[in-house]
Amino acid sequence: MRVQRQSNMNIAQLLLTGGRGAGEYKSNKIGNRGRRDEYVHGIISPTITYSKNNSRTIGISKSVMDAINFGYTNIHKDHGETVNSIKVNGKEYSKKSLPTVDEAWCSTIQAKDNVVHFDNEKYYKYTDKDGCLHTFSCDHDRLTQPYSDLISGRQNSKSYEITKFWNMLSQDGTYLGLYYSATEQKQFLNDAGIKEGFFSVEAGSRKQEYFYSNGNAGVAVRKFEYDAVYDMYTNRGSALFNKYEVGSVFKIGGKEYTLNEDRKLDIPYGEDIFDIQFPQMKSDV
Q1: Does the pTM of the predicted model rise above 0.90?
Q2: Which of 55, 77, 134, 253 is most buried, taking the most CB atoms under 10 A from its CB?
């Protein structure tokens, strides 16, 4: 996936941000406790790519796989991992022999009531547009490639991009546009069954709320930003509207709204306020 910067900001965003660019980078705190930075693409070795038929679990039970994928910190404490093997309940397993996570153990990444939720110590799956199956585990409030895949040499760059997308959303999706095009973002959201409007993403105890927009503020707009702009349009007003005549017609989400005498707009909450077309400004004469 290519890196794409969002260069254009609408007037509402400029008012809210004081003119700061959408591409400004803010360092995150995910890197604590030795975790890989989710916002910066790490070095991934796509030595083996996922295929349409890649599940194999013969010889190793789910309980053993769970112990590896969700209990690896305890294994490390007991010095149970070497370069070539990992030990579970006193039995040693070759890393190269570890199977992929069985698709039957996985839940499809699917929204319920416009909420995508990932439970810790659970497995998930996603089939990409090319028909390739990707399996994941949720661990420590993060979606990730299963540890068994990582140590057996099945790192996959596409899987990493998928987990990064959901992990950014569950913490702070401000910079999604730096890593994913609008088309790619909509693909992931639509595939998960998320409808346009308010939605949220949860991973363990992490949760963030957004508005799925077709406007120029990004695809996933943080809810608090939506609320601030909505309040400015409908309640507080804005110096922005002083540039327009009372009675000017604004198009929001394809619907027409008239600027009233208080220089505000009567917009129903939940409309896509970032999908806005401004009328012609009044003459300065």
Answers
A1: no
A2: 134
